[in-house]
Amino acid sequence: MKNIIKSICFILVFITINNCNTQIHVSDPHIDKFTGTWKWGDNVNGLTLILKRENNIQPFKTDTNTLLDSLIGFHKINKNGQTTEDSTSYFNTNFNDKKQTCVGNSDNDDSNLLVLFMSHKGKGVRLKISFIDTTHIKITEVINREGARVIYPGQNPTDWSIDIPANIILTKQ
């Protein structure tokens, strides 16, 4: 009888442990140095990035148990005197509001490198940003992310150009 009770208890504990949805929190202590408002250029040709830290965001729809500390951001691009993109009015929103145009984390191998994914002209681009000092960061790489683009009837084709120059230094405001 004791063996049956032990077996039943073991099975119940095993089932309980397997059904537990433990959340995994991935901290990123290196992103704080990238937070703030960063500017390059002027009102004719310029870029503004507003980056802020969000703790415990859930970016993966297929993995609801992983929570990340990440940067979310908003950007403004001026080209030839015209504002071509501007999401900076949403800087008071958070990740769950889905108004951000950038999400990023520090690189696993280099704590002074930020990998930022940005919505730009209806597509996703990846930026690599190096930390120079407390008042300067440098965009070292800007590339279109690979992937299929679906164009529906009546929709304009994808604009593959990028209005964000590489090798520019942004100053903290």
Please state the overall shape, judged from the principal axes of the Cα atoms. Answer: globular
Rg value? 22 Å
Distance between the ends: 74 Å
Largest sheet entry:
8 strands, antiparallel, barrel
Mean pLDDT: 86
In total, how many domains does the architecture comprise? 1
Number of strands: 10
Which secondary-structure class do the elements indicate? mainly beta
Order of helices and strands: HEEEEEEEEEE
- In the predicted model, the low-confidence regions spanning at least 5 consecutive residues are none
Helical fraction: 10-25%
Q: What order do the strands of the largest sheet run in, or round the barrel if closed?
A: 2-3-4-6-7-8-9-10
How would you describe this structure to a colleague?
This protein has 173 residues and is mainly β. The chain has one domain (22-172). The protein has 1 helix and 10 strands; from the N terminus they run αββββββββββ. The protein has one helix at residues 2-19; strands at residues 24-26, 36-41, 46-57, 66-79, 82-86, 102-106, 113-120, 123-133, 136-144, 168-172. An 8-stranded antiparallel beta barrel has the order 2-3-4-6-7-8-9-10. Strand 2 (36-41) and strand 3 (46-57) form a beta hairpin. The protein is globular. The protein starts with a helix and ends with a strand. The mean pLDDT is 86.
Produce a short descriptive summary.
The protein is 10% helix and 45% strand.
What are the salient characteristics of this protein?
single chain; 173 residues; mainly beta; eight-stranded antiparallel β-barrel; 10 strands; globular
